[in-house]
TrEMBL record:
This is GGDEF domain-containing protein. It holds the Pfam family GGDEF. The chain crosses the membrane at residues 21-42, 293-318. It comes from Candidatus Gallitreponema excrementavium. Keywords: Membrane, Transmembrane, Transmembrane helix. NCBIfam families: GGDEF. InterPro entries: Cyclic-di-GMP_PDE-like, EAL_dom, EAL_sf, GGDEF_dom, Nucleotide_cyclase, Rev_trsase/Diguanyl_cyclase. The lineage of its organism: Bacteria, Pseudomonadati, Spirochaetota, Spirochaetia, Spirochaetales. Coiled coil: none annotated. GO terms for molecular function: cyclic-guanylate-specific phosphodiesterase activity. Residues 357-495 form the GGDEF domain. SMART domains: EAL, GGDEF.
Length: 754
């Protein structure tokens, strides 16, 4: 049926729209994803650059801090030495002696000043004169150093004593040494800063004690916070973050902008002190080393995003092009360029919706097209198909009509008509007259083909086009083989219903033994006796009575049930031969026809061998028949099967010889034992014509030359019997001698002496 050729699923417009939408979504997702990844990478690069800048500045600050700590360590060592010497003094010495000692130490160590702090936090200089406290002193538990700077940039090292030292009723809890001057310009000679960084030393309050190039003078109050007036901060930073960093001494790097200049603010507490190091650095001083790389990174990310976008767009374009090609393959025949069944179905559906025409669905068939391919070659066959569609079918179509290739040698047509269906038939007859002669424009060869049509005139449009084509195909198959056009009608519809009834009954009929095997004798023209028989199946239904093979065999061949009935016939033959042998009778050679469905299974003959083995009969009494058409269509396969049949000792015959196109050509390629001349040779109403006799005689003589036995079937006239005997035919089969008969009647005919 036409539906069998529909191998591709329909691709709906909704699905295509969805695919396009998904493609655009994919483009957006890829570009957005690339953009996000690029953004994240750039952000990571910036964060890494920020961390690198912080590291560079912190390294500079640590260098300054280290040098401050080095100076402080010197002062601490001096303080420790003085403390150790004081501890060796006699505790009863008067204050003048202590003062002289301290003054000597100041001179020896070349320190600017030395201060003593008693337990009441009173401060004394080296002259043991009471002075104002230089810094707020908090005694450190366990003792230890602390250091500060004064307004002159001098480093103050304070050494806390725990426990205190007691001399002449004076309990000393701390000694402060003031010696080294911190030179920030000297400390900040870092080449990469190019002299543009500004370093500050300040107290935790933000009060600047010393700064690069500018030193605090007198009571001048300069605070680092004042530098951030009229400044703006980058990112999530604010001025509060600056104040927090100053007061807490935490290490931070804060980007900000002042006077259109992008700057970094860095702060860090000096270890073991209340001092804070501050740095103000232009951002471009640090970012210049990364700027080229950063610009290249942005350019690369942008380029990669663009490339990815272009690549995806290109891939989608290629995919869309491929999908168009796939859709074309799904909707068009690659050989002829004609629409295929999928496209035919879709277009017919649209035409039914948009137009009000009466439509005829036509199934066009090229008869024996395989023979054309065999005779003229595949290229010629392809040319015929292309020319038939392009040169004949396309010009034949009118407005709102359509055609498609729906099978190897079949086309479907959707034709319009007014009121009379005869219009369609007349058009098709005229089309046939033109299209059956196709001339190759390249070689000039003229090819003759035979075209037949099956037609269905739908009364309603609610059925799908494939079902309509099926009915047109049924009209072609079940109609008159000699007719040009066969129309699907009530009789065919009733035949379909009848087939359905038979199909419902067939399995029960087999299990309930409603099938019977009839035998038709084969008569030897030399002896006049029956020497063989052909086994034929009959169906005796309890309701319908005897059902003839012509009614159910084509149905069984279509639905595959023929395999089961073939096995039933063969097993019945074997059982009868076994019984005849057991009864002492000489069985005839019994032939039976194997259908095409069997040979589709390469191992089918094993089943038949097992049946023969089960009944234990000699294989010389078995003859397998294959029709000429079956042999022609499956020559290579059947050649092997026939060889295998010969290997087990059975014989093989070609049935219906002469009904096909190339019987003579096949005889040299296939090793059969018997030729059965088709009854069409003897179907003339009167006596055989001289031409017919000449053809039949030639076939018999050819068979004799090839050492083949010959059987003529369908013989009903005495003159035919005499003619066949005269030309040397071996056997005849037909109503003239005996019709097919049940086994009991056959046994009475075959074994009259018994």
């Amino acid at each position: 049926m036409a539906r069998l050729y529909s191998k591709n699923k329909k691709i709906t417009s909704r699905r295509r729209t969805l695919l396009v939408a998904m493609s655009y979504v994919l483009i957006v997702v890829v570009i957005a994803g690339s953009g996000i990844l690029s953004f994240k990478y750039i952000n990571f690069f910036q964060q890494n650059m920020y961390a690198q800048n912080k590291f560079i500045i912190s390294e500079s600050a640590i260098s300054i801090e280290t040098q401050i700590e080095t100076l402080a360590t010197i002062n601490q060592n001096i303080a420790k030495h003085i403390v150790n010497r004081i501890q060796t003094l006699d505790k009863t010495e008067n204050i003048t002696e202590i003062k002289n000692y301290i003054q000597k130490e100041v001179d020896d160590w070349n320190i600017q000043e030395l201060y003593i702090i008693d337990e009441n936090k009173n401060w004394y200089n080296s002259m043991m004169e009471s002075v104002a406290p230089l810094v707020i002193f908090e005694q450190k538990e366990g003792g230890g150093p602390q250091f500060f700077t004064d307004q002159g940039g001098n480093l103050i090292s304070l050494f806390s004593l725990d426990p205190p030292i007691e001399i002449n009723n004076l309990r000393i809890v701390g000694i402060l040494v003031e010696k080294s001057h911190i030179d920030i310009p000297y400390l900040t000679q870092f080449k990469f800063l190019k002299g543009m960084a500004r370093f500050y030393i300040a107290e935790r309050s933000g009060k600047i004690i010393q700064k690069q190039n500018i030193q605090g003078q007198g009571d001048e109050q300069i605070y680092i916070q004042s530098f951030f007036e009229n400044s703006t901060f980058s990112g999530s930073y604010s001025r509060d973050d600056v104040n927090t960093a100053i007061y807490s001494g935490q290490e931070v790097l804060i980007p900000f902008k002042k006077n259109n200049e992008n700057l970094y603010f860095y702060s860090k507490a000096v270890h073991n002190s209340s001092l804070i190091l501050f740095t103000i650095v232009p951002q471009n001083l640090l970012t210049s080393r990364y700027q080229t790389l950063f610009s290249m990174t942005i350019a690369v990310c942008g380029t990669m995003t663009s490339i990815f976008g272009c690549l995806i767009i290109t891939l989608i374009c290629i995919k869309n092009k491929s999908e168009k090609q796939v859709r074309r393959l799904a909707f068009y025949d690659t050989l002829t360029g004609a629409p295929n069944l999928n496209k035919f179905e879709k277009t017919a559906e649209n035409l039914f919706k948009k137009t009000q025409h009466n439509y005829a669905v036509v199934y066009l068939n090229i008869k024996k097209f395989k023979f054309i391919n065999e005779k003229h070659g595949k290229e010629a066959g392809d040319y015929i198909l292309k020319s038939l569609y392009g040169d004949y079918i396309v010009p034949f179509l009118q407005d709102d009509e359509y055609a498609a290739r729906i099978g190897p040698d079949n086309f479907g047509l959707l034709l319009t008509y007014n009121d009379k269906t005869d219009q369609v038939i007349q058009r098709l007859v005229k089309f046939k007259e033109k299209a059956e002669k196709i001339q190759d424009k390249n070689t000039g060869c003229l090819y003759s083909i035979q075209i037949t049509f099956g037609i269905f005139f739908p009364k309603f449009r609610n059925s799908d086009i494939v079902s309509m084509l099926d009915k047109a195909h049924l009209a072609l198959k079940m109609g008159d083989e000699k007719a040009v056009c066969n129309v699907f009608n009530t009789a065919i519809n009733q035949k379909m219903l009848r087939d359905k009834i038979l199909e419902d009954k067939m399995r029960d009929a087999l299990t309930k033994s409603n099938f019977e095997v009839y035998y038709q004798p084969k008569i030897s023209l030399k002896t006049g006796k029956a020497t063989g028989a052909e086994a034929l199946i009959r169906w005796r239904d309890p309701e319908d009575g005897l059902i003839m093979p012509g009614e159910f065999i084509p149905l069984f061949e279509r639905n595959g049930f023929i395999i089961a009935t073939d096995l039933f016939v063969f097993e019945t033959i074997c059982a009868d031969i076994q019984r005849w042998l057991r009864e002492g009778k000489t069985p005839p050679v019994v032939s039976f026809n194997l259908s095409k469905a069997n040979i589709e299974n390469p191992q089918f003959l094993n089943t038949y061998k097992n049946i023969i083995h089960h009944y234990g009969i000699p294989t010389k009494y078995i003859e397998f028949e294959f029709t000429e058409t079956l042999m022609y269509d499956n020559l290579a396969i059947l050649s092997k099967i026939i060889d295998e049949i010969h290997d087990i000792g059975a014989t093989c015959s070609m049935d219906d010889f002469g009904s096909g196109y190339s019987s003579l050509n096949m005889l040299k390629n296939i090793n059969v034992d018997v030729l059965k001349l088709d009854k069409e040779f003897f179907n003339e109403e009167e006596t055989l014509s001289q031409k017919s006799k000449t053809v039949i005689k030639s076939v018999i003589e050819l068979a004799q030359e090839l050492n083949l036995h010959t059987i003529s079937e369908g013989i009903e006239k005495q003159e035919d019997v005499l003619f066949l005997k005269d030309i040397g035919c071996d056997f005849i089969q037909g109503y003239y001698f005996a019709k097919p008969m049940p086994v009991k009647e056959f046994e009475a005919f075959m074994f009259p002496d018994n």
